[in-house]
Amino acid sequence: MNSKNINGTNFIFDNCDTVELAQTFGTPLYVISEDRIKSKCEDIRKNFLMKYPNTKAAYASKAFLTMAMCKIIDREGLGLDVVSGGELYTAIKANFPMERIMFHGSNKSYEELALAVTHNIGRIIVDNVYELEMLERIAKEQGKKVAILFRITPGVGGNTHEYITTGQKDSKFGIPLEKEIIEYAVRKSMDSSNIHLKGFHFHVGSQLFEISSHILAIQVVLDLMKNLKEELGFITEELNTGGGFGIQYTDEDEATKSVPFFIDPIMETIKEGCNEANLDMPMIIIEPGRWIVGEAGITLYTLGAIKEIPNVRTYASVDGGLPDNPRPALYKAKYDAIVANKANQKAEEVVTIAGKCCETGDILIWDLKVPKVTSGDILAVLNTGAYNYSMASNYNKLPRPAVVLVSQGDAQLIVEREKYEHLLDREVIPEHLDNIQSTKLTFGA
Ligand SMILES: *Cc1c(COP(=O)(O)O)cnc(C)c1O
């Protein structure tokens, strides 16, 4: 969805002139398109929720979460995945329907679980036996029966970067499928009057362009369902097949797939497997994050220093970088970009887009073809909607950018730009350091 719309000379995003956005709100600036999120949600409703009975879809909020995003997801009729007390708190403050929330995470704390139980959230995805025991205690204390799924480790990896594959056996996530371990956990839940085990969840990895890992994982789960029915009389009511659907970041990636590419084989495999093993079809839940919001976001920067090293390369530096988009440094992730104020001009040079951090690795894009660039140009990095704002840091004490929500030419601030004083909000100088005499001893006379 790299729609390179232009209006005169400027790059237009969801009917907004991006150069005007940069002037109005400053840079760096995250811009999120409400309409693009909406159209992804529509695809999910039409090709999954309405096409197949007994299904649910949740948005994996760690990709991008603000209270405004909670409102959009609520309006679009999806559920919400959270993985921390902070994400849950955001949803609570946005009045998101609690019964549509699923809580994941490999090491939830007592306080996080207690908050979830207090608010009667829809499902807790229990990652290990330690968590199960803690949750049972909390549910008992609050006099409640809590609906859970077990996250299992299906023993298949996703075909993607090793840091974002999660389903392989040697993983920190999920309950291993060794018979004695999984049966112990299931039996323990069945015996508890405060726990209602509804089924299982797996998530094989992220940024996937094929469905084979999902299919392998489903086969593993079908075996598990069959064994648990025979051995313990346990009936699996729900199966959550995770997220991971990939998007196209650059020309090197395949085009983004629409919902049927992923969903139809998943549903077909589960249906056939259940028929063969004489199992009731469970409710199927999916939870895409990146696929919903990744292509809905761009980041606007202003170009500053441009340094040409003769016969080597030209570095064009932006007023942000690693703190607002750590993915290139973290995963060698690749992005494409447009010079927003020269969107109608032909590429005539190749520059490397450098961030402003004191890190050699702070390069946003290597070898980007651009029109002749000058300091002051506005650069729009594309497809930054997922895992940018949500992964942002204050490294080098850079204030985090503002976030603007655009829709049909309208632009609304949904997160204010951080100011220097915000950076010091929670800092404290201990008393014994508060009145020191500034010394010249080490700094020189
Ligand atoms: C991160 C995550 C997702 C979403 O992953 P995407 O690649 O963004 O779709 C879904 N489920 C779980 C449990 C996750 O941890």
Automatic annotation (TrEMBL):
Give the N6-(pyridoxal phosphate)lysine positions (modified residues): 62
Task: Name the positions where substrate binds.
Answer: 290, 327, 331, 359, 387
Catalyses: meso-2,6-diaminopimelate + H(+) = L-lysine + CO2
Q: Which gene encodes it?
A: lysA
Q: What is this protein called?
A: Diaminopimelate decarboxylase
**Record domain Orn/DAP/Arg decarboxylase 2 N-terminal: where:** 36-293
- GO terms for MF: diaminopimelate decarboxylase activity
The pathway that the record names for this protein is:
Amino-acid biosynthesis; L-lysine biosynthesis via DAP pathway; L-lysine from DL-2,6-diaminopimelate: step 1/1
Per the record, the similarity remark reads: Belongs to the Orn/Lys/Arg decarboxylase class-II family. LysA subfamily.
